[in-house]
Amino acid sequence: MLKQYKFVFLSSLIFLVLISFIFSLVTGSGQFSFADIVSLVNGSASPLLHTIFLELRFPRALAAFAAGALLSLAGVLMQVLLRNPLADPYVLGVSGGSSLAALLAMLLGVNSIVMTGSAFLGALLSIFLVFLFSHNNGSWTVSRLLLTGIILASGWGALISFILVIAPAEKIHGMLFWLMGDLSYDRPLLPAYIILLSGLMLSLFISRSLNIMLWGDLQAASLGINIKHLRLQIFFLSSLMTAGAITLAGSIGFVGLVIPHLVRLIIGVDHRFLLPASALMGGSLLVIADTLARTILSPQQLPVGVLTALIGVPLFLYLLRKSY
């Protein structure tokens, strides 16, 4: 009965994804309806509708969904890795390295594709440094990993502040938008979806081990789980998905923290269901949040990270009060 309920919940989330995309397509400065979307499907849409829907709004909705799903999956894995329900995808400093590289690219005036590549390389550098300094002489502990990530994040933050101080005034606005989460740039979607699908498949492959890991290291080891190897898998998977999300949308807070909590309250801690449900809910939430961010103060756009924070803070406080 419980498993049947979980499948029903997953089905409802797929429906939510569809609704969020429709909401994103029909909401904006132009007034469009569901019939306009039908005209796109049957090929009878006007060139204007085709441009607005398929070249502007739909790619942006796809980017928002990928970023939200990646952050939610990374949040689930990071909370298992650090055994801390307050852990989020940014806790190990990956976002700092990515943000620093992106701001440097903006400072040099490169195009969006080069900036995207720079952000991803910055995230990979941060992942490498965290792994290098937390894996000293073969010893590897969660506390060492967490401390290394926190210190590295502080260092990246100082360098980011320095870049913002020396940057020309005309570039500050774009930099701040990127730091607060911005989906208005034209970024390649294929790499993000490759990371998303690969990360989800690999996470589901180790989902039973993740369930056993919740019982404690001793019990997991007694059941044949290689704890050290599993932790390394979780670290690289979560870090790579975080890197993909940041590269696509900048730093967007609270999605990777709140969504795993919310899904756990609804369907429990079984990662076979928790992982795909978190991806679907996180992606849908960010599509809706980005749509509101670009329309709520139209023609001015808000950084989507501002809106996720405004939604996430009261929601997380409510979940915290209800759970603890």
Describe this structure in words.
- The chain is mainly alpha-helical.
- It is 78% helix and 0% strand.
- Helix 4 runs parallel beside helix 6.
Q: Count the helices. How many?
A: 14
User: Which regions are unreliable across 5 or more consecutive residues at pLDDT < 50?
Assistant: none
Annotation, overall tally of beta strands:
0
Total count of domains: 1
CATH topology (level 3) name = ABC transporter involved in vitamin B12 uptake, BtuC
Q: Specify the CATH homologous superfamily.
A: ABC transporter involved in vitamin B12 uptake, BtuC
The average pLDDT value, as a whole number, equals 85
**Which value, in Å, is the CA radius of gyration?**
20 Å
- Name of the CATH first level: Mainly Alpha
Helix content: over 70%
Report, as a whole number of angstroms, the end-to-end distance: 27 Å
CATH architecture: Orthogonal Bundle
CA-based shape: globular
- Percent in strands: under 5%
